[in-house]
Amino acid sequence: VKVFMAYSFRDRDVAEVASATLRDAGHTVYDPFELRSGVDIHATISASIRSAHAVIAIMTPSSANIFYELGLAAGAGVPTLVASSGGEFLPSDLASLPYVHLSGDHARDAQQIVSRLRDLEGLASAPPSQFSSAKATLKAASREPTLLEALSPEEFEELVARLFREQGYRVEVTPDASGVDFTLESQSDRRRVIVQVKKLSRQGRVSITAIRELAAAVTSADGGEGMLIATTRFTAAARAIANESGLILRTLEDILRSDSEETLLSPTLPSGQMKPAEEAGLSLTGDAGEEAAETLRRLAVGAITPAELEDDRYRVAKNGVPALVLTTETFTSVKQTLESEAARSD
Amino acid sequence: MAIADSSSYRDHRRVLPQHMAALTLLQGRLSVPTTDHLSWLDLACGRGQIILFLDENLSAEARSRIEYWGYDIHQESTRETARTAGQLGLARIESHVGDLANFNRVLPPNVQFDFITLTNTVHEILPARFALLLIDALKRLTTNGTLFIYDMERIAPPELGAVPWRRDDIRRIVLKVISELGVLNYRPEVPTWSHSSTTGWSVQIDRRYLETEPDQYEARLTAAVAATEQEISDVVRDRLCECRSALEALTTYGAETSEEEGDKERLLFEFWALERASRTTT
User: Fold this and answer.
1) SS3 (DSSP) at B48
2) Among B27, B101, B132, B170, which residue has the least CB neighbours within 10 Å?
3) Given CA atoms A113, A119, A123, A124 in this order, what sign does their dihedral have?
4) With an 8 Å Cβ cutoff, are B191 and A208 in contact?
5) Nearest to B256 among A35, A37, A236 (CB)
6) Which pLDDT belongs to residue B118?
7) How many CB atoms lie under 10 A from the CB of residue A7?
8) pLDDT > 70 fraction of chain B, expressed in percent and rounded
9) Residue A338: in which H helix or E strand, if any?
């Protein structure tokens, strides 16, 4: 059984004994304190909880983070066992969850936890992958947020590398800490592109830090090109730096839609670096009013990406040729954001 | 010249991994049957963190063959280090006080070392002085000596004036020194270390691979100072340019994530340190 151990660092003594006992009993334990720097903690913890068969939460008064992890487990439907010394800090919402009382005797408490874990209802093995290819898996993940969230950053990175192999690219995985996940060799002219893959939580955005790290990795590899592939959007500052450094930015949707090497590796398309609308020769056609113009402005500065646009209510043309389409949902969301910004500035 | 924000670290509970790496090199050298004594210069020794657990990492017999030289700018720190060293049964203990950049002038001439360590301190050294420090350290190695350097790529919380070098910067600088010596086939590894809160780098340079002509070693190193200073100046210039671009982008678009908010502060510290450094490099 794969177990996620949620605990505060102050409770590491009992957590470490419990983890060791669980491992001795043949379980796999995921310990968030074993994460190394540079890892997206939120995405990794979220993926680990979603892919766990059970969560063990060691609750003490210093456990603010644990409540968040319990919420993730509840949302993902992962069975949870609460271990606590009791007390008033435990909210009544948790009162009905399976419970182990911590006596202070770590070895005894750990045995109790292992014993109670067997009785948790709903324990099941993770379903085997039902998809035949990396592309099918990633497509499903791009449509189904829970599937994407359940992928660990490493699994996502591996799927992206497999996707490129399936598309006929030569991929060389670079297992080091230099900020490079793999290199991709273009089919047409054999040029090498250093690729970094970022799997962030759904609400996350790729910050300027990641772009600077990739730029450093490209320099370290004695030049060449760099591409950052992410599950989420990029901040405007990140886009600006990428544009200046000639780096290619792509979202998961971008790479799934890329039907040619030119589309994939072109530094200017599709969502990597948008120039201001007028400079890029963009104009709106169809049912486009002030809201659409504002959306286009935000598109230009990177506040939203073309990858998020699928429907055809608002068509964006580049030099007279249809280039982008904007969804009604995007417009609504942008409008709400603008309205709330305006309200704040008032 | 020190920076005011820096402070010596002393953790009584554990050996830091970078220190363990240095101690592992030391263990290897002391295990060689012909090593009847080993001279060790601990540059920027601070409060003696690296030797704090030496009794657990080396036998009493091995420790009795070590001549330990601690060097630091703070007198109190060197005293504390000497007190710690005094309980370890070492063959000899020397402690010297002085600016790191001047260590070669402060230490007695003609004393050479089998092992020189410089850990957690390179960010405090003014880049204009780093070339000379590096080369002075290489000059002080015995023919079979090793220089081990470790530092962090990111200092948290940031220290005003500190220039945390990245792995690639150090690789560039070290390779420049080596190429200036006319050595073609020696490229020391500069690995990245992943800690829980930061990343670091280390490099181990062995003198025996640096000598193309032994009698020319010191003269060639002296001749390499100017080119290494220029390389460091180029690295500082490139980093400053990159830092300015990132700050410009954050100024224009604002920080959209807490990570970028943190970057803003870190970049400002970095900008000041690099700008200050660029005024003193060639």
Assistant:
1) coil
2) B27
3) positive
4) no
5) A236
6) 95
7) 27
8) 94
9) helix A328-345
User: Does residue A99 contact residue A84 with C-beta atoms inside 8 Å?
Assistant: yes
Of A231, A253, A52, nearest to A153 by C-alpha is A231
Sign of the torsion formed by the C-alpha atoms of A153, A156, A162 and A164: negative
> Which of A207, A244, A274 is most worth mutating to test chain B (most B CB atoms within 10 A of its CB)?
A207
In this predicted complex, what is the ipTM? 0.76
Taking every pair of C-alpha atoms in chain A, what is the biggest distance, in angstroms? 74
φ/ψ of A280, rounded to 5, equals -85, 0
Evaluate whether B39 touches B115 at the Cβ level (below 8 Å): yes
Find, in chain B, the residue whose alpha carbon is nearest to that of A208: B260
Place of tokens 């993926």: A47
Query: Are A115 and A27 spatial neighbours (Cβ–Cβ below 8 Å)?
Result: no
Helix (H, G, I), strand (E, B) or coil at B254: coil
Q: Compute the nearest-CA separation of A74 from chain B (Å).
A: 26
The shortest CB-CB distance from B256 to any of A38, A219, A235 is to A235
Whether the pLDDT of residue A114 is over 60: the answer is yes
Q: Which residue has the tokens 């001439």?
A: B109
Tokens of A188: 């047409």
From chain B, the residues in CB contact with A236 under 8 A are 249, 252-254, 256
Cα of B255 vs its chain's centroid, Å: 34
Residues near B11 by beta carbon (within 8 Å), at least 6 away in sequence: B49, B52
Is the pTM value of this prediction over 0.90? Answer: no
